[in-house]
């Protein structure tokens, strides 16, 4: 029994599409490997998105470095519970920096979806909101209703505090929507969107 | 809170001066005594974000994110940290990110603690296996030139480079406390 056992869970694709549609055009997105990358791509490819296909645990720290470098833009990491937990110590690193333009959106279905739906830690005792707060991220929200999406988008637009959103999603697996796997092209296009040369 | 420190060895001053000269704006690190001067200077320099990490692999992603956003960044670690990074190095290869890490060596010279040796002996190979070019400095007078050469390769040519700072530079660790 965990804190989230009895709470309602959202359709992941619908939530992500709704959130992304409410973000300003200059928002930079980093997606964790697996379904979160597919969800964000399905919401419409944007030049300011970096899709991870590996490097499990990288979504949050990559977004941290990007947020520190681009303080005038909202930076949002969208990842899953498994990817996030592999690099959970990064929350301590983020808690020590607290860039006001950084938001972590953790899509939690309490399973390792990509590998056959094995139960993950969030149904075996881990409470991610308590974890984030314990690491010093005070601005947390647990999303269990689509009506909360606008409130989250407003926080992202405001760039006024590092925000941690724990989004409870169900275990349905929508059709795969595969973003490009060419990391070099993705890096170059994101930098081009920022007016930066390749190197 | 103010602390006084013994003056840093000049090679450590050379490291920070080189990073500063090239406009490095993020320094991510897991501390080591050999990096203490650079860390201290980064902390008090308003133009540099000092990012203390819980594990080195976070730093591989932090400095890549910095580069995506247009800032130069470096990762400081001890040789034991290289092993923690191995899978995360795939990010560097897949994105061909410019990448510089400065690695202080343990387990290779007058090492008192045998637990440092397995990773210390394989640091260079682990980096090379993951596609990172390895440079080395063992004498104080070589540090500045080696770090500057690495900065050229990384930020002018987009390479991935590690500079190993030999344990001889740091000297024998004093184990008994007076």
Automatic annotation (TrEMBL), chain A:
Q: What is this protein called?
A: Thiamine pyrophosphate-dependent enzyme
Q: Where is the Thiamine pyrophosphate enzyme TPP-binding domain?
A: 50-156
InterPro entries for the chain? THDP-binding, TPP_dependent_decarboxylase, TPP_enzyme_TPP-bd
Q: Name one GO molecular function term.
A: magnesium ion binding
* The UniProt record lists the keyword Transferase: no
Keyword annotations of the record: Decarboxylase, Lyase
Matching entries from SUPFAM superfamilies are given as:
Thiamin diphosphate-binding fold (THDP-binding)
User: What's a Pfam family in this record?
Assistant: TPP_enzyme_C
Its lineage reads: Bacteria, Bacillati, Actinomycetota, Actinomycetes, Kitasatosporales
Automatic annotation (TrEMBL), chain B:
Could you list this entry's UniProt keywords, alphabetically sorted: Decarboxylase, Lyase
Keyword presence, Repeat: no
Any one GO MF annotation of this record? carboxy-lyase activity
Kindly indicate whether the keyword Lipid metabolism belongs to this entry: no
InterPro entries referenced in this protein's UniProt entry, alphabetically: THDP-binding (IPR029061), TPP_dependent_decarboxylase (IPR051818)
Q: What is this protein called?
A: Phosphonopyruvate decarboxylase
Please report the organism this UniProt entry assigns to the protein. Streptomyces guryensis
């Amino acid at each position: 029994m965990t804190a989230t056992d009895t709470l309602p869970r959202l359709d992941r694709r619908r939530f992500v599409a709704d959130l992304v549609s409410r973000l300003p055009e200059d928002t930079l997105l980093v997606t964790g490997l697996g379904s979160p990358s597919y969800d964000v791509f399905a919401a419409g490819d944007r030049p300011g998105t970096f899709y991870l296909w590996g490097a499990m645990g990288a979504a949050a720290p990559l977004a941290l470095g990007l947020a520190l470098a681009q303080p005038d833009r909202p930076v949002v990491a969208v990842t899953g519970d498994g990817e996030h937990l592999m690099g959970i110590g990064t929350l301590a690193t983020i808690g020590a920096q607290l860039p006001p333009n950084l938001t972590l959106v953790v899509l939690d279905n309490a399973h390792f979806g990509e590998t056959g739906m094995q139960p993950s830690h969030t149904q075996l005792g881990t409470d991610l909101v308590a974890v984030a707060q314990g690491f010093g991220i005070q601005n947390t929200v647990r999303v269990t209703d689509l009506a909360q999406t606008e409130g989250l988008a407003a926080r992202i637009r405001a760039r006024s505090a590092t925000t941690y959103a724990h989004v409870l999603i169900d275990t349905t697996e929508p059709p795969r929507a595969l973003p490009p796997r060419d990391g070099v092209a993705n890096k170059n296009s994101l930098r081009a969107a920022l007016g930066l040369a390749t190197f | 809170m103010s602390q006084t420190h013994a003056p840093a060895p000049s090679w450590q001053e050379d490291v920070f001066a080189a990073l500063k000269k090239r406009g490095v704006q993020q320094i991510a690190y897991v501390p080591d005594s050999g990096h203490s001067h650079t860390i201290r200077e980064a902390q008090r320099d308003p133009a540099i974000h000092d990012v203390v990490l819980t594990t080195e692999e976070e730093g591989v992603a932090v400095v890549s994110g910095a580069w995506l956003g247009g800032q130069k960044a470096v990762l400081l670690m001890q040789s034991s940290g290289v092993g923690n990074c191995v899978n995360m190095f795939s990010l560097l290869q897949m994105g061909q990110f410019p990448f510089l890490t400065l690695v202080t060596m343990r387990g290779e010279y007058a090492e008192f603690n045998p637990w440092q040796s397995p990773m210390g002996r394989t640091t260079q190979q682990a980096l090379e296996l993951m596609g990172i070019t390895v440079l080395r400095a063992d004498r104080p007078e070589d540090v500045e030139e080696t770090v500057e050469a690495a900065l050229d390769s990384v930020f002018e040519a987009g390479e991935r480079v590690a500079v190993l700072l030999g344990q001889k530079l740091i000297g024998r660790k004093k184990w008994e406390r007076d």
